[in-house]
Amino acid sequence: MLKQMELTAKKSSIFLIGFMGAGKSTIGKKLAHRLGLTFFDLDKLIEAKAGCSISDIFKFLGETAFREMEQACLQTFQTKDHFLLACGGGSPCFFDNLGFMKNKGLVVYVDLQESVLFERLSKAKKIRPSIVGMDEKQLKEFISNQLKARMPFYEQADLSMSGLSINVNGIVEQIAQFAH
Ligand code: S3P
């Protein structure tokens, strides 16, 4: 059983995980505001550090280099507190990133069903390097396969919430109760 102090510290560092398009950034901003935490977006931090877009990192340096940058950026949160970090969809599935998140704070999974992910992602293909250029069938298959592969990681989150609505009341309550 964690001590009260550790739980309080855990609640002041929140990692939002979930598939691309699940709504982590939108929900994250709202949730951070409600909890009085500073909002960060891991992809944005990587882009700022690299001086180019995630798409260009994938295109010119490849996914392996991106995953290394992602891990390095995540590690910088070791010394931070009172933040909510919206993490890229693949981040908890590489290295021991999920272990790091779980040690440092509270991991919240933003859950969204495949059909809605498909709807959202088919409108935002250009800005997402993993799905750019896919037709409908390929995108459906990609979402289904990736979700299956990533579920064992996402399921290890401390709490989960639906990405369908940006109403954060339910999860705010769950976070508040997490210490009891
Ligand atoms: C990725 C998700 C993206 C971004 C990169 C790879 C993934 O983040 O990190 O394009 O592997 O699922 P979002 O989940 O914020 O779109």
Structural write-up:
- By secondary structure, the protein is an alpha/beta fold.
- The protein has a single domain (2-179), classed as Rossmann fold.
- It is 53% helix and 13% strand.
- It has nine helices and five strands, in the order αβαβαααβαβααβα.
- A five-stranded parallel β-sheet has the order 2-3-1-4-5.
- The longest helix has 19 residues, at 136-154.
- The radius of gyration is 16 Å and the shape is globular.
- It starts with a helix and ends with a helix.
- The mean pLDDT is 93.
- Shikimate-3-phosphate (S3P) binds at residues 20, 24, 43, 54, 88-90, 128-130.
Main sheet record: 5 strands, parallel
User: What's the shape?
Assistant: globular
Low confidence ranges: none
Give the oligomeric state of the chains in this entry, treating copies of one chain as homo and distinct chains as hetero: single chain
**Looking across the biggest beta sheet, what order are the strands in?**
2-3-1-4-5
Q: Which CATH C-level class is it?
A: Alpha Beta
Total strands: the figure is 5
CATH topology: Rossmann fold
CA(first)-CA(last) distance: 11 Å
For the record, what is the CATH homologous superfamily label? Answer: P-loop containing nucleotide triphosphate hydrolases
